[in-house]
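Hello,

Our lab assistant flagged a job as stuck in the queue for most of the afternoon. It eventually completed. Since we weren't sure the result was trustworthy after the delay, we are filing this so someone can double-check. Below is the sequence as submitted and the structure that was eventually returned. Let us know if re-running is recommended.
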Amino acid sequence: MNTPQATSQVAPISVRSLDHVTIVVKDLAASRTFYVDALGMQEVPRPDFSFAGLWFQAGETQIHLILEHEGSGLSLIHI
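-- returned structure --
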């Protein structure tokens, strides 16, 4: 069995923060309920894009939900 060995090398990129993360969903209403009611996140204003979506604030990072559509890629089941 091969196991990864720890190295002392420093990663070439060091992420210090994330501005936003986008998640494609199939059901915006159910997703909003989860993010607001279960996780306690705050919904924040979102620009009027040509596709449906919702934005939430999580500390310094925003979570952008977009409704699955032809150009979005596939949604993942995460709730």
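-- support follow-up --
The delay was a queue issue, not a problem with the job. The result is valid. The chain is about 15% helix and 30% strand. The two ends are 34 Å apart (CA to CA).
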